[in-house]
Amino acid sequence: MSGHGNGGRALGLQRGDILLKRADLFSLSHLAIAFGQKLGGSGKATTVHAAIYVGSDHIAESSTGGLALMPLDGLATWKVFRMTRGSTLAPLAATVAMHLVDRSRRTATFGGYSMPAAARSAFEEGREGDDVTTEIGDYANQALSEIGGESRAFFCSNFVVQCYSIASEYDNAGGGIAGTLYAIPLDHERTSPADLAEFFETPLSGWSKVGEMRG
To answer: I need a labelling partner for 210 at 20 to 30 A (CA). Which of 37, 83, 196, 203 fits?
Structure first.
């Protein structure tokens, strides 16, 4: 399926869906990201950006301008992925994303874009980070209580993984997803958009591809 302009409604997007952007061959920045991910050994190198759908045809994302809510403009091609279980977690991740964007508007040093970390992620393996468990609990408290973490920068896939990891912390505390610690068990510091695509398309990942759209 595809949608133009109102792509969210055309594809039946739900809050918390993850959108992965295909490279635009006329975009030098997209080609550079794809080239870097290809050099890093990814089989999904043409996946160059990640965002979270938050409703009303808007996405939350980390880009060179920092954290922001942006409308779907009908110009990009996105692959859409959705959790196959845990109906409370996806909208919670969308709420976390919106909170972080809002905090970036109120705190000048919070929510910037980390170009070095984004570039490094293209060359590093993004799966199964042992340090994730020890960090996300603190990040969850910092993000939602706004105590600490005033100088945090993000990049696109890092932002997506952190939103779902923070949401997973709260969902697990409330007994939401039995036996699952993180909905996206990847190291947020090293995960590239291509790593996300590879994970979502892995059998038994707990995610399914909804379709592709222009949005």
So the answer is: 37
